[in-house]
Amino acid sequence: MTDATKTLCPYCGVGCGLEVSPPAQPGKATNRDSKGTPIWKVQGDRTHPSSQGMVCVKGATIAESLNKDRLHYPMMRDSLDQPFQRVSWEEALDRIVQRFKTVLATQGSDGVCMYGSGQFQTQDYYIAQKLLKGCLGTNNFDANSRLCMSSAVAGYIQSFGSDGPPCCYDDLELTDCAFLIGTNTAECHPIVFNRLRKYHKKNQHVKMIVVDPRRTPTAEAADLHLAIKPGTDIDLLNGIAHLLMRWGYIDSEFIEECTNNFPAFAEVISHYPPEVVAKICGIEEREIEIAAQYWAESKRVLSLWSMGVNQSSEGTAKVRNIINLHLMTGQIGKPGAGPFSLTGQPNAMGGREAGGLSHILPGYRLVKNPQHRAEVEQAWGLTPGAISPNPGRTAWDMITGLETGDVGLLWIAATNPAVSMPDLVRTKAALMRSPFTIYQDAYYPTETAAFAHVLLPAAQWGEKTGVMTNSERVITLCPAFKPPVGDGRPDWEIFAEVGRRLGFADKFAFKNSAEVYAEFVELTRDRPCDQTGISHERLHQEGPIQWPCADSSINNIDRHNSRPKVLDRTPKRMYTDFRFNTPDGRARFGAYHSRGLAEPADPNYPFVLTTGRLYGHWHTLTRTGRIDKIKQMHPNPFIEIHPRDAVGLGITDGELLEVRSRRGRGRFPALITKAIAPGTVFVPMHWGSLWADQAEANALTHPEACPDSLQPELKACAVQLLPVRNHIETPQALLESPKSSILSAAPSA
Ligand SMILES: Nc1nc2c(c(=O)[nH]1)N[C@H]1C(S)=C(S)[C@@H](COP(=O)(O)OP(=O)(O)OC[C@H]3O[C@@H](n4cnc5c(=O)[nH]c(N)nc54)[C@H](O)[C@@H]3O)O[C@H]1N2
Ligand SMILES: Nc1nc2c(c(=O)[nH]1)N[C@H]1C(S)=C(S)[C@@H](COP(=O)(O)OP(=O)(O)OC[C@H]3O[C@@H](n4cnc5c(=O)[nH]c(N)nc54)[C@H](O)[C@@H]3O)O[C@H]1N2
Ligand code: SF4
Ligand SMILES: [Mo]
Question: Which ligand 3 atom lies nearest to the CA of residue 189?
């Protein structure tokens, strides 16, 4: 392709390379959508090391949504009951700056909050941190990664001393056993799954274990599917560890030389013989034994996980328990082995590097660490003490801050919380009370726009230049290849402009995003995520580069042959020397008994609802809801329910079920399937109020979170199910009373 731009897919954290070329190529018919809009042509980039030319349906169709239903210009209104008025950027920025000044003067800097996104480019993240945490002195920046990866971040930090997935995708094709837990990789990380699946099919000895309460397409491909009850992962993992210990399949030398706290862990797992674990998890003893046997017999074990682990009120403990298995067997720091979190969003990794959560700072630093704060203050030319020592508000704390009136200004960008936050009834009520909400998005309308005072049009992927990091730490340059729609501007430029107008002109004097990145990489120097050897120029010339990549490793003259060192292109792993980022260099075992679900099923709410994703759709549908092919694949929301439970409720396939939790309700057609365990039901997260009537998964979920990662348990809440046909409107009082159990059938045991 001649005019093709090499870039990265803006959907999932697999991070596939794409080549995008303009619609009207010389000599070829112009590609157009049903409205006659030209469509850019997209294909996989064969030279991208992570994806090797492969793409899934989302990446392949991305161009079809780029020009549809975009937010074209800034809009404003004084109160939420008024219609929006189109305004100029000047007017919008004036209003924003004025409001900032008022809130800073009356409530202090902690009255200001920003809620960002793993769909930011690293530049967007970095400038937002500099503005909020640096110039304004509040750590009230959090991202939707709080709902996504924060348990993995906390688990890595506690076990290894720092964040950072230690593995690389080549490990998918080097392992003897892939242990997939709480991940529907086939639908959510399809190209990772393709690589693994091909290798698994070709190599008889390679085992694949999937741990998921649902029989997903991922589970279909496994040698062993452990359909555990939701929330029993810790018991299962302790059970596998128990057998490995009993059988003597542990790496005593590694434990002795490279770890701490093994005795506490050994004590805990002694309580988890298979007969106990099988009962708790709702599986057979034999299944646990097979899983442990696969671990024991495999030279190299690779664990993959995502939201079934992270989105839990004990998410950090689950992550650490996965890591425990790797530590006790020495399965880390070598090809084909290690604990590997699959990142959800395209640049949640870059967000972590740039300090994009309320408790972290750029360069894998922590807000609570005085030395880390001092290093960042110095880099930013701030007075000592300018950065607050207190972690800021998490995503959910922003909602409660609106409830209490402590949040005076909320700036939301590149996320759609009126669909994706837990407990939507409460979330929306809090957003309604917000004194001033700025919402910066690429599309219009979205559900969150209804709660904004100011709407700012963002230039999206393809309209701005920046970098993103995928799950295996590979950084790809994403150049602009088309002009922004309407008056759209890159997120980081909007943040920088507000920073300048608030009096920090010298801190935001960047001419372009390459300069922003160059400043950021200095903050990674000598840190685990060192990328000082990477620049826009280098990415443009040499293609995607994996970190760590220190400038000392490439820019220096090689003393032996006095030639400049060239970039080492072999995929890297972390911890190959078995030294970890803890003060004593040892990894730490965590010792955990399970506390179970935050809201277990009970006689009033007898089913456990779990939520998640479908192959074709992306989150809140702002893009994929506008793509015909994908709409045909997944036209409607639904609720998966086991045939036995359907019989208990007397319902047939397709019949409408009303689902109620303690917080809200929704209506979904039943999809009767043995793929889900009795007692558990599943609803996709994708459909918000603009896309379907009363089919919001998060009307039902709760915000109870892991005490370490503060990540909410979006994967489980207790619900009642009522067939709509014989459903009489129930007064709220009756719904709350214990008698309400008579209204809802119990799951078949
Ligand atoms: N098609 C598609 N792909 C995506 C996305 C998308 O919107 N659409 N989003 C991206 C993002 S941001 C993310 S975070 C990832 C998410 O990727 P995944 O985590 O793979 O996706 P989910 O469907 O949220 O949840 C995964 C599985 O967790 C299981 N689960 C539920 N409860 C438990 C439990 O207690 N224990 C265990 N072991 N499993 C449980 C569910 O049954 C589900 O199959 O996907 C990314 N990729
Ligand atoms: N029940 C339940 N809830 C969940 C989950 C679940 O599994 N179950 N998963 C959680 C997880 S893991 C995640 S990651 C979240 C995702 O939830 P959200 O972040 O709310 O979902 P998106 O639809 O991806 O929202 C991204 C928004 O950014 C806009 N956008 C796209 N590009 C740009 C850009 O360049 N700039 C700006 N400013 N805007 C842009 C899009 O139009 C869209 O409105 O949902 C969470 N909520
Ligand atoms: S697997 Fe993920 S990154 Fe790759 S094309 Fe699909 S959505 Fe894009
Ligand atoms: Mo996510």
Answer: 1
**pLDDT in the model for residue 36:** 62
pTM: 0.95
Residue 79 CA, ligand 2 centroid: distance in Å: 25
Among candidate residues 550, 580, 596, the one where a domain is terminated: 550
Pair (371, 331) in one structural domain: no
Rounded CA-CA distance 668/695 in Å is: 6
- Residue 212 near ligand 1, beta carbon < 6 Å: yes
pLDDT, averaged across the chain: 94
Q: Please check whether residues 659 and 686 belong to one and the same domain.
A: yes
- Position of tokens 């997935």? 165
Centroid of ligand 3 to alpha carbon of 9 (angstroms)? 6
Dist. CA 223–CA 235, nearest whole Å: 21
Per-residue pLDDT band at 553 (split at 50, 70, 90): confident
Distance 424 CA to ligand 3 centre (A): 28
Rounded Cα–Cα distance for residues 442 and 460 (Å)? 6
Q: What are phi and psi of 212, to 5 degrees?
A: -165, 135
Tell me which residue range forms the domain holding 666: 607-736
Residues ≥6 apart with Cβ < 8 Å to 468? 8, 10, 15, 121, 122, 346, 347, 349, 350, 475, 476, 478
pLDDT in tens, 12-48: 999 999 999 998 655 455 566 656 667 899 999 999 9
pLDDT value for 38: 74
Half-sphere exposure in the Cβ direction for 330 (13 Å, CA):
13
CA atoms within 13 A on the CB side of 7: 28
Q: Read off the pLDDT of residues 659-703 as tens digits, 9 standing for 90 and up.
A: 999 999 999 999 999 999 999 999 999 999 999 999 999 999 999
Sign of CA dihedral 441, 702, 151, 376: positive
Residues 395 and 521 in one domain: yes
pLDDT at 567: 72
Site of tokens 């701490």: 260
Residue 733: pLDDT band (50, 70, 90) is very low
372 and 335 share one domain: no
Q: Which of 17, 40, 65 is the last residue of a domain?
A: 65
Whole-number Å distance between alpha carbons of 268 and 448: 45
Backbone angles phi, psi at 670, to 5 degrees: -75, 135
For 195-227, write each residue's pLDDT tens digit. 999 999 999 999 999 999 999 999 999 999 999
- Nearest-CA residue for ligand 1 atom 29 is 308
**474 CB under 6 A from ligand 3?**
no
Name the residue with the closest Cα to ligand 2, atom 6: 612
Q: CA-CA distance, 649 to 702, in Å (whole number)?
A: 25
